[in-house]
Amino acid sequence: MPAISIIGLQWGDEGKGKIVDLLAQKADYVVRYHGGNNAGHTVVVGTKKHFFHLIPSGIFHKNTKAVISNGVILDLEVLSKEMDILEKEGINLLYKLCISPRCHLILPYHKGLDEAYENARGNNLLGTTKRGIGPAYSDKVSYNGLRVYDILDWKDFINKFTFQAKIKNKILKTFGVKAINIYKELEKLKKLRRRILPFVKDTYKVINEAANKRKNILFEGAHGIMLDLDWSPYPFATGSNTVVGSINTGSGLPVNKLNSVVGVVKAFTSRVGGGPLPTELKGRIADAIREKGGEYGTTTGRPRRIGWLDLEAVRFSCLINNVNEIVITKLDILSGLLDIKVCIGYKLNGQKVSYSECGYKELSKIKPVYKSFTGWIDDISHVRNFSDLPQECRIFINFIGKYLGVKIKFVSVGAERNANIKV
Ligand code: GDP
Ligand code: IMO
Ligand code: MG
Asked: What's the confidence (pLDDT) of residue 1?
């Protein structure tokens, strides 16, 4: 280690949760530094599946502490439910979890506004998770946000919340969406406030003291790089920057203190919601991959759109984040396909174009340039040695590493912690 970032290099759901949990075995701290409960990370321990939306995925390890730093936006109801589940599992959260007072809050009117904007977009909807992400981040940027800091002084919070809620209710009414009941929401928030107050701490200090002592810190990226607010085909984005640069703004770790970046790449592509997906597949192969891979949203349950692995896009993610190593996940899901394709470039009107040159209109029109690979028949989910993999599978893996020019740390062939193969 000591300070490692783990990020998804595609459109989300690459299997970040599994990899964070695995690498957290040696971590002193795991930090979530951006996004909200639009994230859905899965960790499988034994036969049990755990879903994380806000709390860092590495919390199950005995000596690993979890930090929610300032860049995360918090829906206190979701957070409190997630805390309840973990406490029932026997985890001593008071010892393990801390939350920055700088985190902005996702408030009931943000969810209402997310819904209202989506409805108003009609056929051009973005397909957000409707968790209030965009509206909460836009309140942060327009100085209308309320933070965990604000709930420390309850009387003051009542005034600030009421002021904001009255404005938002006017907007909601204009959209024909139900206004929020300010009194009832304040009652709920008052209880939630009591629940989280004991965990509020200056996380900047925790992280920087740990970094100075060369402790092992994992930074858990939420969402994928292709959903980054600046580097996605905007507006088909999420509300936060998903690139590693947001570790600095979202946690206070100085940029030059990050030691390495591990990128998680799913062996195919998935996307939830609208927006261009250059290698999208429709029909039999997509359905087979979706069913076998359980490709349904961890947060919303929506069926994920499926495509071939898009190395043009992943290469951009590697470049912009200076990825040092990659982990390839869900390779087991491709077993049984006769022919597997990967996209190695884009063409627009017959001309070569790069991912970064394309806005959403160009990305919807480009023709992927594919390289075909012979598939393998055998189930590989029980294989643990690289040399035991079918030759076709090894050729596929080696091509990905070579094309990206990045070392492959290991490949994952199952959701469980030990289903990995060192390359
Ligand atoms: P995240 O958002 O990136 O953490 O990913 P999700 O948890 O939303 O989706 C990934 C899904 O794939 C989860 O159900 C994981 O348990 C599962 N998973 C992760 N790695 C593998 C793998 O290598 N093989 C299989 N079959 N499933 C995996
Ligand atoms: P994890 O952490 C997949 C997508 C939404 C939508 C767009 C904007 O599990 O990889 P938002 O609610 O963020 O305003 O929606 O972003 N999106 C994700 N898709 N996995 C995620 O998180 C996502 N987080 C946001 O589907 O298209
Ligand atoms: Mg997910």
From this structure: 66
